Amino acid sequence: MMKVSSTRLAAWYAQMATCLDAGLSWQRAVETASGLRTELRRRLVDALGAGLSLDEALARGGAWLPRLDRELIAAGTAAGRTPEMLRRLAARHEAAARARRQVLAASAYPLIVAHLAAFALPVAVLMQGAGVEAYLPAVLKVLIPLWGAVAVLAWAARRRLRPLMAVLDVLPGIGGYRRYRALADLAFVLQAQVMAGIRLDEAWRRAARASGDTRLEAVAGKVAETVRAGLPVSLALAGERRSLPAPFAEFWENGERTGALESALAHLYRHFGDLAARRLAAASFAYPKVLFAAVAIWVAVQALQFYAGYFQQLEELMQP
Q: If both were cysteines, with which of 87, 138, 187, 278 could 269 make a disulfide (CB 3.0 to 4.6 Å apart)?
């Protein structure tokens, strides 16, 4: 089953939170809130009407909802704070959709220039007397590799293939964005798990998995060992400064000591989310310029090659 976009999920979560705050039942809230396709809403309504819990209804509905979202909604429900959790999820998906739009907008201009060049440069073939049957293959010779590269990158990004992720992690700006985004996701999921009273070893395992960062998953493993030994999490974090920035460990220790872990994690989510947004903004400004420069150089090389060949033909024609 096709997954629902982040934009639609954000709208649905926000409307569901409003409906629940107004005192509507889950079934009535699903009927009222828009954002989902009619078929999905009908399945949820039927499942809730049959007496299933929300978690069971969402699980039965298929893979349209991210697994992490289902876990967090269940955590919010267990804590009696479902509307609050839905609003947090709405904000998270809005941020994800905004970042995706930013990346697409930044990539659009260089791709448009590359397409224009692909159609313009082979005009030389027509000027040399060849027909359309020679022009179209010359255009496709440029476009097919370009489309193929874009398709492969999109597929690899969707699958989160480790080779591509490793390359992205070392790129200036993009690597910083991914790192801070992973830390923000870690704090977001941890806050939800703490709110629901989940054991800290399990909370860290789920949060690290959601972050998609292998370094944080290794930290979560050490946290689990520390918790099972009956020791505070801050002891495990103190020795992980290379994998976990100092502010994270410091705020966690402070929240652990004062009993205000939720507030500390909320601050960390905002802090690292802001840092991630700044890195993405910088990368969205710089990389299109680099791509445009690469396209411009390629166009210049192609033009020089054309004129060199053209003048060579003229010289050959002028020879006795």
A: 187
* Alpha helix stretches (DSSP H) within the chain: 6-21, 26-32, 38-49, 54-60, 67-78, 82-120, 123-127, 132-159, 162-170, 174-195, 200-211, 214-228, 233-238, 246-258, 261-318
119-176 pLDDT per residue, tens? 877 776 666 656 677 778 878 888 888 888 888 877 877 776 777 777 777 788 888 9
Tokens of 75: 């955590």
Does domain 6-87 match CATH 1.20.81? Answer: yes
Q: Which two tokens stand for residue 124?
A: 């030389």
Listed in sequence order, the residues at least 6 apart from 213 whose beta carbon sits closer than 8 Å to its beta carbon are 178, 179, 182, 183, 186
- Cα within 13 Å of Cα(103), Cβ side: 14
Predicted structure pTM score: 0.77
Render pLDDT for 299-316 as a digit per residue (tens, 0 to 9).
Answer: 787 777 766 766 776 677
Quickly tell me which residue has 């293959």 as its tokens.
137
* Sequence-distant (≥ 6) Cβ neighbours of residue 96 within 8 angstroms: 6
The pLDDT assigned to 264 comes to: 94
**CA geometry: angle 113, 118, 123, nearest 5 deg:** 120
Average pLDDT for residues 42-68, to the nearest whole number? Answer: 83
